[in-house]
Amino acid sequence: MRQIANKWAKFEVLNRHSDMAVHIPDTRFYSIASMRRVLQKYGFVVVKPLRGTGGNGVIKIEQLGVNRYRYHYKRERTVVPSFKQLLRSIDRIRNGRQYLIQRGVNLVTIAGRPVDYRVKMVKSGSTWQLRAFVARVARSGQFVTNLCRGGSMRQGYAALRNSFPKNQAKDKKKTMLRIARTGTFLLEKRYPGIGSLGFDIGVDRDGKIWIFEVNTKPH
């Protein structure tokens, strides 16, 4: 079964489709210049390895003022007094690895903890089937929702109902499943041989749906 580790390669495929592109947060290759631009534009970004799963190496960064930044890595939150010091801290965590910068999204929460959704598609014979639609709630003190990072799993629609009225919850589930099916069609067309896909999808506090990444080896 084919696997595509490069997150950027998968985003490129989805970004070419207008219905998918509107759900993808502004995502760029990590560099000093792009870091400065995206932070200035959004005030909140997430930097993540170009290759990697399980929330490993993911950092949340917020601009608190003209020269104050806070980064959240694992369970630690650290405030630094300059952009230069922020870069040094990121470089220690990156350790030479290629990274992406993604616009931060303020997710809806359950009991004050961020929640996102995993839609898993699996190919059986010649057809793709929906294998799972679940919510993942971050562990207290964490911003990543990955189960291997202490996140907990809930039934997807029940979690949506926790945040939205019945009709809105139904619509959001329908949109997420449509995103997964369209994304599966596009990615298989570009990368024949893939057999399973896990779409990591979030809903922000305004109700907008975002695609954070797609895994070809979903747990």
Mean pLDDT: 92
Determine the N-to-C terminus distance.
15 Å
Radius of gyration: 17 Å
Within the largest sheet, what's the order of strands?
1-6-2-3-4-5
Q: What would CATH call the architecture of the largest domain?
A: 2-Layer Sandwich
Question: How would you sum up the major sheet?
Answer: 6 strands, antiparallel
CATH superfamily of the largest domain: ATP-grasp fold, B domain
Report helical residue fraction: 25-40%
- Beta-strand share of residues: 25-35%
Query: Spans of 5+ residues with little confidence (pLDDT < 50)?
Result: none
Tally of DSSP helical segments: 6
Name the CATH class of the largest domain. Answer: Alpha Beta
Number of domains: 2
Query: How is the CATH topology of the largest domain named?
Result: D-amino Acid Aminotransferase, Chain A, domain 1
Order of helices and strands: HHEHEEEEHEEEEEHHEE
- Tally of extended strands? 12
Q: Which term fits the overall shape?
A: globular
